[in-house]
Amino acid sequence: MRIYNTLDRKKELFKPVKEGKVGIYVCGPTVYDYIHIGNARPMIVFDTLRRYLTYKGYEVNYVSNFTDVDDKIIKRANEEGVPSIEISEKYIEECKKDMAELNVLPATTHPQATLEIPDMIAMVQELIEKGHAYEKNGTVYFRVRSFPTYGKLSHKNIDDLESGHRDESHALKVTGDDEKEDPLDFVLWKPKKEGEPAWESPWGEGRPGWHLECSVMSRKYIGGTLDIHAGGEDLIFPHHENEIAQSEAANGQQFSKYWMHNAFLKINNEKMSKSLGNFFTVRDITKKYNGQVLRYFMLSAQYRTPLNFSADLIQSSANGLDRIFNGAEKLRDTMEKGSKAPITAEEQAMLDKEVAGFVKQFDEAMDDDLNTADAISAIFELIKFSNSNVNENSTAAFAEGIYKELKVLSEDVLGIKLERKAQVLDSDIEALIAERTQARKDKNFARADEIRDELLAMGIELKDTREGVKWIRK
Hints:
Elements: E1 2-5, E2 10-13, E3 21-26, H1 37-55, E4 59-64, H2 71-80, H3 84-101, H4 117-129, E5 133-136, E6 139-142, E7 186-191, E8 206-208, H5 210-221, E9 226-232, H6 236-251, E10 256-262, E11 265-267, E12 270-271, H7 282-288, H8 291-299, E13 307-309, H9 311-337, H10 345-367, H11 372-389, H12 396-413, H13 426-441, H14 445-457, E14 460-465, E15 468-473
Parallel strand pairs: 3-4, 3-9, 9-10, 11-13
Antiparallel strand pairs: 1-2, 5-6, 6-7, 7-8, 11-12, 14-15
Helix pairs in contact: 2-3, 4-5, 5-6, 8-9, 9-11, 9-12, 10-11, 10-12, 11-12, 13-14
């Protein structure tokens, strides 16, 4: 398998640190709201990478964090008048629901920043002892110029970086610039502010810097050198650049052998933003479309290709998914009703040659820097072959042989299920509404809200009226 390594800007043959084992770290979401479809792209892409490496026989340790202490979380908590942990815990659970809807496997470990504070303090102390960090009035800064190769991931020249210069989305300045030895130095530990969560440290009460969190959690759950570090391309600088600096300065070894970054997602050819009114959460989309449609859409382009989201393109994905569903359904029908005679020599020859050829085509696409677009094309070729060659005279064994390969490629590797999501029956909806009504009478409002959310996920919207609860399909 060849992977495009952002570090060297070229495709490189993948060779893990330890034979047969792969450690992958993917930057997870900051949990202050429902995840948006931009968050969904790396989740789906790198979940597929994990699945493919597992399919190839590797033992994969997949770590993806939840950033559960952050300015945005604190702001949301203050607005709602609740502790920040209440916000983060709520949206971690909501994120997990959305991941399940997208068929994203739970990580081997989902570390949370707030549960790893002692290890973060320990790394800061290591960096101070090694001369890579210093403290000023309760803030600890990383000494950027103590790390000579700073800029090697983003390919920025340290001498060209000036404090206060901003690109489209990243600020080099942070508060307290006048205290720094150098304008480029970044925060490892920040002192407590009124109304913010804080932890005891040798430098006073405070909390860790965002960049530090990932360095500590990846080292703890994978080791000093990762095989693959992945995330969106917006994280290359400064987040991933700073991770490299502090990790390699502390650990004295290469932080990650391979860096993979997915390209941006646009909405109708514009950058997604709340101000433009084109900001969509995964929950918004899955009210109308099965999560499998969104997963298929995200995999319909190679991950380094910018992807444009629009109503027409998501509908096109729904149509493409239907082709897969229909092909699989035809195979299942033949498996059930076809001849129970042994597979014929001609059928076996087709399995060994044509079907094996489509599997090879799929593997070659995935081996070429996870080209899921071409891999899906190979699946369509397999379905086209199946539709042309499986008929009323075929043996069940022949259909089963094709289906087995289709299931592995589609479900196990791409995470695209072969059966349509079961339709919600009206009786099921009425039963849940009755349960919700009783929960409200019992003042069990948490369960009532949970049922409302369950129905929303099924595409059912409830309306409380004077005549009672009404529901509509979205």
